[in-house]
Amino acid sequence: MSGHSKWATIKRKKGALDQARGKAFAKLARQLEVAAREGGGDPSANSALRTVVLKAKAAQMTNDAIDRAIKRGTGVQTGAAYEAITYEAYAPGGVAILIEALTDNRNRTASDVRSLFTKHGGAMAEPGAVSWQFGRRGIVTVPGTVPEDAVVGAAIEHGADDVSRDGESWQVSCEPSRVFDLKAALEAAGLEVVSAVSTMVSSMTVEVTDAADARAVLRIMDELDENDDVQDVFSNFDIPEAMMAEVAR
Q: How do the domains of the chain map onto residue ranges?
């Protein structure tokens, strides 16, 4: 979890929110299209689509944009045909990285991802070498300024599995299908929610203590995030706060 949550914090601090929002909407549109194509355009009968719709609404994507993406997926409107691909890789320092992509050109995406890791001293891994340590969880983030008893009390009451401290925030975990219901419940209880995601969480972390390795890991995460085909990136790195402040500048 450390890799994902700390990287999310870095991205928020980097700014350029409007540009980042536009890129996020484009990626969400692809996810909507694929979910609708594979399971139909009715969110009530397609749980995968419902999850992406809730994710898109949480990101403030408009209903019209959501509807257009679903129509492209069901063939009502024309659009590119995307396929889902998962890549597994290692960054410097032995950091495991799991990459989920949606692409209309498998060769282009594979080449882009491979060259990125080569450039920064990482390497692609065989299928299963990385993915075994990741499992999908719902994570709702609450500001660390909220008292612990308030977070724990509300979380337990509304079906969360665990509450843990992660830097400046509380991480409330649950089954991935319940993440947006939990978000709504915590907000109804008067708690501020920073984010709510269905994400892949590693069962172990790798502490990165070398500054050069830390910079390389963050560059890899940054460039993967900028790739239009890459939808989600999950990692198990844990960079100490002092070093993170230094290398993330």
A: 17-74, 83-132+204-242, 133-202
Residues 82-137 have pLDDT tens digits of 888 999 999 999 999 999 999 989 999 999 999 999 999 999 999 999 999 999 99
> Quick one: which of 228, 220, 237, 235 has its CA closest to 101?
228
Give the N- to C-terminal CA distance of the chain in Å, as an integer: 22
Decide if 17-74 and 133-202 have a common fold.
no
* Burial of residue 85 (number of CB atoms within 10 Å: 0-12, 13-18, 19+): middle
CATH placement of domain 83-132+204-242: 3.30.70.980
Instruction: State the Cα–Cα distance between residues 178 and 175, nearest whole angstrom.
Output: 6
pLDDT of residue 120: 96
Q: What CATH architecture is 17-74? A: Orthogonal Bundle (1.10)
Instruction: Write the pLDDT tens digit of every residue in 158-175.
Output: 889 999 888 788 999 999
Question: Helix or strand or coil: residue 161?
Answer: coil
CATH fold group of domain 133-202: Alpha-Beta Plaits (3.30.70)
- From the centroid of its chain, how far is CA 229? 14
List residues bridging with 233 in a β-sheet.
99
